[in-house]
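pinging the channel bc i need a second pair of eyes. not urgent but kinda urgent?? the chain im working w is below, pasted from the shared doc
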Amino acid sequence: MDFGVKMQGGEPGSTVKVSESEGKLEGLAPAVTPNKNSNSSCGGGISSSSSSSSSSSRGGSAKGWQYSDHMENVCGYLMKYTNLVTGWQYRFFVLNNEAGLLEYFVNEQSRNQKPRGTLQLAGAVISPSDEDSHTFTVNAASGEQYKLRATDAKERQHWVSRLQICTQHHTEAIGKMMSHAEGQQRDLIRRIECLPASGHLSSLDQDLLMLKATSMATMNCLNDCFHILQLQHASHQKGSLPSGTTIEWLEPKIPLSNHYKNGADPPFATEQSKPVAVPEDQSVAESGLLTREPEEVNADDEVEDTCDNKEDDLGAVEEQRSVILHLLSQLKLGMDLTRVVLPTFILEKRSLLEMYADFMSHPDLFIAITNGATAEDRMIRFVEYYLTSFHEGRKGAIAKKPYNPIIGEIFHCSWRVPKSDVASSVTSNSSTQAVTNHTPLSEEALSQVGPDCHTVRFVAEQVSHHPPVSGFYAECAERKMCVNAHVWTKSKFLGMSIGVTMVGEGILSLLEHGEEYTFSLPCAYARSILTVPWVELGGKVSVNCAKTGYSASITFHTKPFYGGKLHRVTGEVKHNLTNTVVCRVQGEWNSVLEFTYSNGETKNVDLTKLAVTKKRVRPLEKQDPFESRRLWKDVTDSLRESEIDQATEHKRTLEERQRTEERHRIEAGTPWKTKYFIKEGDGWVYHKPLWKIIPTTQPAE
C-alpha cells in the first residue's frame, strides 16, 4: 500500500510505504508544513498550520517537531487500533482546533467526505502509552477512546502536544461559558427575589418560581458535568487516581434550609416549626422498643380489608406547586434524598411496608408456582407471578410517595385463597386462565370454606433507619413455600424526576421441590414532578434457580425521550445448561402481557381484569402500637380530609418520637433490637422461616 505525498509546490515528495503484512511504515515522509498562503493542506506525514499570524513555514523534519504553544491544525497518517480481529489500520487524522475535534478518514483522498469517526476534545485526556515510544491514547469525556500509534517518538510528541493544547483551550472555554452562565443565573434569581411578595408580578408568581427552579437544576447539572471533566483531566495529568477511588456527585453548593434537612419540618406554618415535646414515658413506654418479642397473630382476629385509599386527587399537588418549586430550587442533581423530608401533601395514604404487601395481591398465582409439574413450568409460573405483582402495587395513576417507615414499624396481613382457584399441575398456559375471571369470595363464604382455603401470611418490619432497610416475609405453610426479602431504598434527585433504587434480593423457597429462586427488583422513577407525576419502572432484573439451572432475565424499559411506549417490559426464561429459551414475554407491566412458549403457543394476560384478592388485617384496636395502620392513623385520617397542615403535624410528632428514642438508646448504650428479622451477612432473614420448621424434600423428577 503506497501513499503518495506531494510537497506544497506540487513537487513529488517522499513516498510512505505501508507493509500490510507487518503493519509498519517502511519509509517516513518528512514533515510538511503549508506555506503562509496555505490554510491547512496536509501531506502524507504530518502537517501543521498555526492559527497565529506569526507562524512561519518550517523547513526540515527536525523543526517540524519543535514545540510551540500556538494552536495548530494538524493532519497526517496514524495507525489506529480497531479490535483483536482487525488490529492496527492506517487512517488519516485531522485536528480541527477551531471546532475542538479530532476526526479521521480512511485516507487523505476521502477527507472531503464525512469523517469515519469524530472525538470532542473538550474534557478529553491525552495520554502517551507506556507500551512503547510510539503509542498514545485519546480518551474523550464521552467514554470513547482512540488508541493511536505514530511512526516514531518525535511524531507522537508532536501529536500529543497539539492535542493537549487544543483540549486545554476548549475545556477552559467551557469553564468561561459556565462562569458567564452562572452570573446570569444569579442575576435572574436576584431580580426575581427582589420583586414584591404581592401584586401584579410578585416573587411568588408560579411561572417565575418555575423559571427559578428549572434554571437552578440546569446549572447544577452542568456544574456537575464540568466538575467531573475537570477531575478526570486533573487525575490523568497528575497520575492515576488511587485504587478504589470513584468520582461521585458533589454535595449541594447551596446549603439546604433547615426545614429540608433530615428530621426537620416542611415549610407550612410558623407555629409548626416549634419543637414538639414528647414525654419520655410516652416515648419509651408506649413503644416498648427494648422489650418487644415476636407476636403470633391470631388468624381469627383478621377481617377482610375494607380500606380504599385510591390516590386520584391532583388538587393538593396543584395547590402546593410553589412549595415543590422552592424545594426543587434547593436540590442538586444526583443528590441522595434519604435525609430530605418531602412535603406531606405528596404522600400516599399507606406505609411502604403495606405497599410491599400489595405486591402479593394475586396469592393464587403465588401458590400456583409450586404446583408446576416440572422445573421449567415452575420457573415460568414464577415469572408470570412476578410480572403481575407490580400493577396492584400502585394506587392510582398519580405518583405519590408512601410513608417512610420508622424503625421498628411492622405490618401484618394474610390472604385466604380457595383451593379451586389455584392452578394445579397442568401446563403453564392454563394457569393464568384459571384465575383470570374468578371473583373474590365474600366474608361469609370464606368463613364457611375452612379447609378448602389456602392461607398466605405476610409480615414486614423496618429493620434499619439509616440506611432505610425493610424486611418482609410471606408463607403458605400448607404448600410448604415461602419468600424472604430485604430491600434498601435509595432515592436520588434527577432534575425533573426522582429515581428510587431497590437494593437487595428476595428468595422464594419451594420446600416440596428443594428449590430456591433468587430475584431482584427494578428501579422506580417518579416522572414529571412539576406537572402530573407518574410512575415508571426501569432496569434489568434476574431470577435464578441454582438447583434446576433455569433462569429468567427481565428488562423494564423506560420511555425514550422521543416516541416509544410507556411501561414496556420484555423477558425470557432460559435453561442455562442447554442455552435454550423456553418462554418469552413482552407487553406492559400495568396492562397486557403476552407469553410465548417453546411449543409455539401464546397467552395474553390482561392485568386490568386480573382478580385481586383482598388482604385480611386486624382491626386497629387489636393491632400493635407500632403496626403501620395504627401508627400512621392520624396522618392518614388527616390526608383523607385534605387537612395537610394537620397531617404534617402528626407526621412530625412521629418523627420526633423516633429521634427521642434513638437518643435514649445512644445515651444508654443499648443496641437496636429487631422483632421479627435477624441480620445474616448482608441481608435480613425472618426469625422463624418455614425451611427451619419443615424439612426440605428432594423429589425426583
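so The longest helix spans residues 153-193. and The longest strand covers residues 481-493. — does that match what u expected or am i reading it wrong
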